[in-house]
Specification:
The structure is a single chain. This protein is an alpha/beta fold and about 220 residues long. It has one domain: TIM Barrel, CATH 3.20.20.70. Helix content is about 50%, strand content about 15%. It has an eight-stranded parallel barrel, surrounded by seven helices. α5 links the parallel β4 and β5. α1 runs parallel beside α3, α4 packs across α5 and α8 packs parallel to α9. The longest helix has 15 residues. It is globular. The protein starts with a strand and ends in a 13-residue tail after the last helix. It binds erythose-4-phosphate. The site of erythose-4-phosphate has 13 residues, from α7.
């Protein structure tokens, strides 16, 4: 499963790239607001820092506008994925952009049938917002399961990208279901490394090592 960072903050992008574990980035208008810079600088810089796919969202809500913005965003860099909401106008725009060879991420997805429509339109990715469904009293992960089944039933190549991730358990559930990718905020990405027993056992090993005779000239230094 690919791991994407869901952020437009350059410090977070740089740190995640340095860790060597992320496959791409997803951004959205709210992330750009949080990052606090100008998108004309932020988007190209993220595309430069990351070799994998970078999702950048359109703002227009009519098909012509979405297509126009999508074409312009795709000009920023070869790794741009144009993020389009799964509204009627967006699904139509996805079909047009896809026919031009522009990769798309169908976003703000809350039903399996929206995902089916996006896949039929040729979307490269579909982004179900599972944490937001949980907050609305539904089980977001069930949506992921349903989309997986639909895509497998018909051999759709659209990649299932779980989004609106709220905790590491969402990442685990995504992987168990067979999502192609999962995008998460920086704190969740960082939390994937953690277990208190890892820290405890490491401290025990290092403590015991202090009473072991020194291996002069060996691999551990003097
Ligand atoms: C995904 O691509 C979106 O940017 C993101 O996951 C939205 O999630 P939110 O509910 O945290 O805004």
């Amino acid at each position: 499963m690919k791991l994407f960072l869901d952020s437009a903050r350059l410090d977070e992008v740089k740190q995640a790239v340095d860790w060597g574990i992320i496959d791409g980035i997803t951004t959205n208008p709210s992330h750009v607001k949080t990052a606090g810079g100008n998108p004309s600088k932020i988007y190209p810089e993220i595309c430069r820092l990351v070799s994998g796919p970078v999702s950048i969202e359109t703002i227009a809500t009519d098909t012509e506008g979405i297509v126009r913005e999508g074409r312009a965003l795709a000009e920023i860099s070869d790794n741009v994925i144009v993020k389009v909401p799964v509204i009627k106008e967006g699904i139509k725009a996805i079909r047009i952009l896809s026919s031009e060879g522009i990769s798309t991420n169908a976003t703000i997805n809350f039903t399996p049938l929206q995902a089916l429509l996006a896949a039929k339109a040729g979307a490269t990715y579909i982004s179900p917002f599972i944490g937001r469904l949980d907050s609305a009293g539904q089980k977001g992960i069930e949506l992921v399961d349903q989309i997986r089944k639909i895509f497998d039933n018909y051999g759709f190549e659209t990649q299932l990208l779980t989004a609106a991730i709220r905790h590491p358990e969402h990442v685990l559930q995504s992987a168990l279901i067979g999502a192609d990718a999962c995008t998460m905020g920086f704190s969740i990405l960082s939390g994937l490394y953690d277990h208190h027993l890892t820290d405890l056992v490491l401290q025990q090993f290092l403590g015991d090592w202090e009473s072991v005779p020194k291996w002069i000239g060996g691999p551990y230094g003097d």
